[in-house]
């Protein structure tokens, strides 16, 4: 199997397994909604960066960041028992702000649309 295809398959497998683990381990009430957007895997498969999408308030965001860091080794152990790889990659979690940034852009566009659609006071 060619290396790029193998790396892609490992990334997708890790993405799926980590998403399932996060779903089982964390509640939405405590850390908000977490989704695994992508997984960046080193060429030697010994480390991986997990890009996590987040929806929730600021307090949940802080808690999510702390909990992911705190439980990274446990998640790694659970993943290692669920998949068959020579090495289970060392996981590092990074909150991906793309959903939050997208929501901000939509809110700004809505605001611009409302300001241009509302009649402006005419100078008579």
Description:
This protein has 124 residues and is α+β, with helices and mostly antiparallel strands. It has five helices and three strands. 13% of the residues are buried. The mean pLDDT is 84. The termini are far apart. It has a three-stranded mixed β-sheet. It has a single domain, classed as K homology (KH) domain (GMP Synthetase, Chain A, domain 3, 2-Layer Sandwich). The protein is elongated, with a radius of gyration of 20 Å.
Shape verdict: elongated
Quaternary state reads single chain
So what's the CATH class?
Answer: Alpha Beta
Helix segment count? 5
Instruction: Using the 3D structure, state the CATH architecture.
Output: 2-Layer Sandwich
Strand content: 15-25%
Poorly predicted segments: none
Radius of gyration: 20 Å
**Broad structural category:** alpha+beta
> What integer is the average pLDDT?
84
SSE pattern: HHEEHHEH
Brief sketch in words of this structure:
It is built from five helices and three strands; from the N terminus they run ααββααβα. It is of the alpha+beta class and 124 residues long.
